[in-house]
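Teaching assistant's notes for section 4

Start the section by putting this record on the projector. Ask students to predict, before seeing the second block, whether Sec-independent protein translocase protein TatB will look compact or extended. Collect guesses on the board.
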Amino acid sequence: MFENLNWWEIGALLLLALLIFGERLPKVIGDGMRMLRGLRAMAQNATSDLNRELGTDLQLQDLHPKAFIRKHILSEEDEAALRKPLQGLLDDVKSDLNGVKNDLSEVAAAADIKKPATPSASSAVEKRASGFDLDAT
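Reveal the predicted structure now:
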C-alpha cells in the first residue's frame, strides 16, 4: 500500500497527523494497531473455521482463484500437460532473442571504428569526404 511513498511524503503525512491529532496521536495509533490486530485475528479465525468445516488445510493464499484451480481441480499431470507446449514456445522465443542479441552485439562491434590518432588525419578525412576544404571557407 505504501510502496509508492517516498520519505518526504511519509514525513509530511506524519506531520499532518501530528497537527490534526496533536496530543491524542499516541492514543489514535494504539487504537489503530488494536483494530489491525483484531482484523488479523478475525481473518485467521475465518480460515481455521473453513479448514475445520471443509476438512482441508486451506491457506489464505489458496482462496485466490488461480491458486484454487491449480491446487484443487488440476492434477499435476494436467498442469504439466498445459505447461509443456507453452514451455516449448518460451524456449523458442528465448533462443530467438539470444540470437538477435548476439547479432546486434556483432553489428555494434563492427560499427565501432577507431578514431584517427592525430587531428591532421581527421581533418584530411573530412576534406576528402566533404569535397571541399573546410579551412578555406
